Amino acid sequence: MSFPSNLLPNEASPEWFNKADNAWQLTAATLVGLQSVPGLVILYGSIVKKKWAVNSAFMALYAFAAVLVCWVGWGYRMSFGDSIFGTHSSFWGKPAVALDQKFLLKQAFAGMFPNATMMFFQFVFAAITLILIAGALLGRMNFHAWMLFVPLWLTFSYTIGAYSLWSLNGWLFKAGVIDYSGGYVIHLSSGVAGFTAAYWVGPRTNKDRERFPPNNILLMLAGAGLLWMGWTGFNGGDPYISNIDAALAVLNTHVCAATSLLVWLFLDILFFGKPSVIGAVQGMITGLVCITPAAGVVQGWAAILMGIMSGSIPWYSMMVLHKRIKLLKQVDDTMAVFHTHAVAGSLGGILAGFFAEPRLDRLYFGPDQKYIGLAYGLTMGRSTAGFRQMGLQLGGIAFIVVLNVFTTTVICNIIKLIVPLRLSEDDMNVGDDAIHGEEAYALWADGEKLENSRHISVYDVEDFPSTRKTGNDVEMA
Predict the structure, then answer these.
(1) C-alpha to C-alpha distance for 193 and 182, rounded to whole angstroms
(2) Could you read off the pLDDT of 101-125 as tens digits, one per residue?
(3) What are the extents of the domains in the chain?
(4) What's the CATH fold of domain 9-428?
(5) Hey, which of 19, 54, 256, 307 would disulfide with 291, CB 3.0 to 4.6 Å?
(6) What parts of the sequence cross the membrane (predicted)?
(7) Which has the closest alpha carbon to 193: 338, 319, 317?
(8) What average pLDDT score do residues 177-187 get?
(9) pTM for this model (two decimals)
(10) What letter would DSSP give residue 318?
């Protein structure tokens, strides 16, 4: 086997390096990346009206690319590097370029693989957070405003949440808040930020709000399937090692998602009389989100109970409370990101504080004894520690909510000084063609013309009784 002249064999596989863990981490990262591209690109592009298919899919694709450039430029170090304040417990890291070879090949802050692997793994989490925010803004946000929003929000909101909860020097991490794989950092953040940004951008047109049918439900299911299966990497990669805790996290993830989907489906049948495909997808998503902050620290029976609650509580908030609370009715959250991610993410964080099992906590966090769910604290004579854990979980929710309401509000108001946040009424009436000069589908219908081409000209129009020739065009009869 040959090696590059500047890299000796022992340098390519140093003593701390584990090939199996590195391979799994890169695989898990790729699975999470596939959730966004093509998963959410397909889901967004198919669940909206035909006239918004290109714009919605492109908002997701742009965010994925823009986040990566910002991530290697400064975002990764701000999320996991040295504290900007020079203390051992902080909420923000120093901005710095993370492409230096010496840095990339060094062992990451956790796991037996290099910083290059950790950086890619953490990037796909940051990217999907921005894409989830886009779900609340589909159908009316100015694309140029979105281009500014992505790097600004990543820099001034995501990095603070990630450092506080996931960095080894983060103040909430050191306090003992449990966020196994992003219930707070990703889902609660995206739900609150999406809802806040939707308030500032304003609603879709009245016509779109009254009727917004998916343009392709089967394709929507394909995107949803990629999202579901990709969650194997989402939660299975967060122990940073290919161990039994990763296996438990994967199984708990799928059990909770399936349970939640079924509960949402049964509630739709019970109250509306019909099994809704879109409703089933919403239930799947709330189950995946709910288990995320607890995936590797709860037992299988707890995952089922969490699935029951994630299929019913967000259902109630979306189907009942949404129609009764004025603020929820006022803000046009296109994909109901607030309910599927903010509500479900908060629910998962609270239930993690209740069901976290001490032995599983040690598998994930190490020998630290402070992590214990309230249910076990009450039965093991450690009720004070259990209530402390619940208090920390609630405090983490409060911090993420305040952080994202504030930063998203400031960012949106700065952007609107530069470009309009919202598309013009004319552009919103037209959709993709007005914004991008492109449309998702070329359909022969409604009197539209089939453009003449060398492929159609080889046929005699008389062979097609449903068409008639008018000048240089072949038009549907």
Answers:
(1) 15
(2) 889 999 999 999 999 999 999 999 9
(3) 9-428, 447-476
(4) Ammonium transporter fold (1.10.3430)
(5) 256
(6) 23-45, 52-74, 119-138, 145-164, 184-202, 214-234, 246-270, 277-295, 301-322, 334-356, 397-419
(7) 338
(8) 97
(9) 0.90
(10) I
